[in-house]
Write a structure and sequence with these properties.
single chain, alpha/beta, six-stranded mixed beta sheet
């Protein structure tokens, strides 16, 4: 856009409209500028003005005339079709086109700033040592590696250097308010970048931060919010008196209802209401909804915190230096308590109060309960619950990220090489414990937790069931496209492993399942300088994410070889038929067990309190009016439909395979 100085006539018109400037020559305007919609405004310093004409839409069913009214402007460049009204102080901002700002106490950049980029937050360990510099391109994977790989000093030095370099590129003494932003009824906004189509309404204080919004996924900041040293990414909403101090809010996050957090990170699709967080690394889909819940000094993901959930990281010795790891899919019951440090295995439910430190990482799908003051582990039993199954179904559906650039890399599989290798570890441990435990002993202790001796063999069978399900799942995934025209060679081709990566240990990087070797390669690439920027780091992580299916099949092929003695491409057809038959049998059995758990929600006890003023018939009618009937419940119907689909798919494949003999 070409700019010019104001004409004498324009200056006179502005003066007549009660506008003032300390130096009219410091103001330049667009070629088609007209001063008619600039009223009762004072200008100081260097000013650039666009074209103020036409109407703007402030919000639904509300519009106004573009212009600048009743405001003070210092050192700003203001684009076209902008509405600014009743802003007591607007200083050092570039304001792009189609922005509306009204009723603001102060909106300023008062010093050179990186706008929250580079702010170090002390996550996982409140005592320090795992500081995470937050920035507006941070993913849960980059955060995980930066926080958890402190043992590799060369890597940490390099990755912190990449982050520092990126954050320095954001340093400026001028802020930006991008196209389509709407800002109103707020007190103080200081040193904040405001992204496209962000909506800020009624904020108390926003200071030293970046709001990385976009048209497809606008950010919303609501009434009474106080946020200092923060990053908020696209599609997120922060509202209702929330207090954030040194926090990162990822994509599609919801924080509200007076939630308070400091030194914490919330990644994709988290929800946090009412409670409190301190030094929390909340991986994707972490949910906490209750006023009395404190989450402190822990790494969690796909986590659901029950009311009154609490942890203790302070033994009044060397300070708050203890940390907790709760792997993917964990839940805590009401008023559960954990004495950190602990490491809880994936998809585990924690109930009661626990005053010992334990490690159950090799026992996914478990219950941890408090029995007469003892912390007890019941392995595998959470596999058959409605809650676990509903979580797996609902997480992908509840992805609120509408930004095309999704930073967090998330795999949703229930059974993956990472989980299954934990299951295998669990089987081996249970076998070893069963073999050496005296039958006189009621309990056996393992890594700080007690297991009832009689459960060692029973629960091992459930883990073995997972192995059958996983192998069948992966085989079916690869051969489901075969038909009656397919040849044995076609079948062998589909079962052939195409990559050499994937064998060996697997890890989960906060939502991303990966062979450990691929992460080691990535770490080495950072250390040697092969990866030279944050964008290149994200690209390399995306490559691992996109190749997950091939890596997983390479790992599964090793498991198949161990179980059958054959590589998948060489396995006899009869053995393939047996794998699919097992998948069918155990898949239907698992669904039936989950359905049985769901049926408890419709038993006589569940109807207590229904039909309050009537008889048994009224109670039944009231219950059905509110809850429906078991056979028509959406979850139950979906489960039954899936079992039928498993049966049909298995029978079709078995029929085709039998013709290939």
């Amino acid at each position: 856009m070409t700019y010019r100085h104001l004409s004498k006539e324009e200056i006179n018109q502005l003066l007549s409209q009660n506008c003032l400037a300390d130096d009219w020559t410091g103001i330049t305007v667009a070629e088609r500028f007209s001063p008619e919609n600039i009223i009762n405004t004072r200008f100081e310093g260097k000013i650039k003005l666009g074209i103020f004409s036409g109407a703007f839409e402030a919000e639904k069913n509300s519009s106004g005339t573009c212009g600048i009214y009743n405001s003070f402007i210092r050192n700003c460049e203001i684009g076209s079709h902008v509405y600014i009204s009743d802003v007591k102080n607007l200083s050092n901002y570039l304001i792009e086109d189609n922005v509306a700002i009204s009723n603001i106490g102060s909106l300023e950049v008062n010093e050179e700033s990186t706008f929250g980029n580079g702010t170090e937050i002390e996550v996982v360990n409140e005592g320090g040592g795992r500081e995470l510099p937050v920035f507006d391109r941070l993913s849960s994977q980059t955060g995980y590696l930066t926080v958890l790989y402190r043992h590799d000093k060369d890597f940490i030095s390099k990755i912190l250097g990449l982050i520092r370099e990126y954050c320095e590129s954001k340093r400026s003494n001028r802020g930006v308010i991008r196209t389509g932003a709407r800002i109103k009824d707020s007190l103080i906004i200081r040193n904040v970048i405001i992204g496209s189509y962000a909506v800020i309404a009624g904020a108390g204080l926003l200071e030293e931060g970046t709001i990385q919004s976009c048209k497809e996924a606008p950010v919303s900041i609501g009434t009474g919010v106080v946020a200092k040293k923060f990053i908020i990414l696209s599609g997120s909403g922060v509202d209702d008196g929330v207090i954030l101090d040194k926090c990162f809010v990822g994509q599609g996050v919801r924080i509200g209802k007076q939630y308070s957090a400091e030194d914490s990170a919330f990644f994709a699709n988290c929800e946090a209401f009412h409670g409190e967080a301190c030094s929390l690394f909340a991986g994707p889909y972490t949910v906490t909804h209750h006023k009395s819940t404190l989450l402190i000094a822990s790494l969690v993901s796909f986590f659901n915190a029950g009311s009154g959930t609490n942890q203790s990281n302070h033994m009044y010795k060397l300070g708050p230096v203890h940390q907790g790891i709760l792997e993917r899919g964990c839940k805590t019951g009401s008023f559960s308590y954990l004495l950190l440090p602990v490491h809880v295995g994936a998809f585990t439910v924690v109930m009661g109060k626990h005053y010992v430190n334990f490690d159950t990482s090799d026992f996914p799908f478990s219950y941890i309960s408090e029995e007469k003051g003892r912390s007890e582990l019941t392995p595998a039993m959470n596999l058959f619950t409605v809650g676990t199954r509903r979580d797996i179904d609902k997480w992908p559906v509840r992805d609120r990220r509408r930004d095309q650039d999704k930073l967090d890399l998330i795999h949703f599989d229930l059974f993956s090489p990472y989980i299954v290798q934990r299951v295998i570890n669990g089987i081996n441990i249970l076998n070893e414990l069963a073999g050496r435990t005296d039958k006189k002993n009621e309990y056996v202790s393992y890594k700080g937790i007690s297991i009832h001796r009689l459960l060692l063999k029973t629960t091992r069978k459930y883990y073995e069931m997972i192995l059958k399900l996983y192998i069948g799942q992966e085989v079916v995934k690869r051969i489901q496209s075969v038909d009656h025209d397919s040849t044995l060679e076609d079948l062998r081709e589909k079962l052939t492993v195409k990559v050499t990566d994937g064998t060996g240990k697997w890890i989960e990087i906060c939502g991303l399942f990966s062979p450990a070797g691929k992460i080691d390669e990535l770490v080495d690439s950072v250390k040697t300088g092969k990866i030279k920027s944050i964008d290149e780091l994200n690209e390399n992580l995306c490559t691992i994410y996109n190749n997950y299916d091939d890596y997983a099949w390479a790992w599964c092929s090793g498991l198949i070889s161990k179980e059958t003695g054959y590589q998948p491409e060489d396995i006899p057809v009869d053995s393939l038929v047996q794998i699919i038959a097992d998948w069918k049998a155990y898949g239907i059995k698992l669904n039936n067990m989950i359905q049985k758990d769901a049926e408890k929600e419709f038993d006589t006890g569940s109807k207590t309190g229904f039909g309050i003023d009537g008889d048994a018939e009224t109670r039944e009618s009231d219950f059905q009016a509110v809850r429906g009937v078991f056979d028509k419940n959406k979850f139950v119907v979906t489960l039954q439909k899936e079992s039928k689909e498993i049966e049909e798919k298995a029978d079709r494949l078995i029929g085709i395979l039998q013709n290939l003999r």
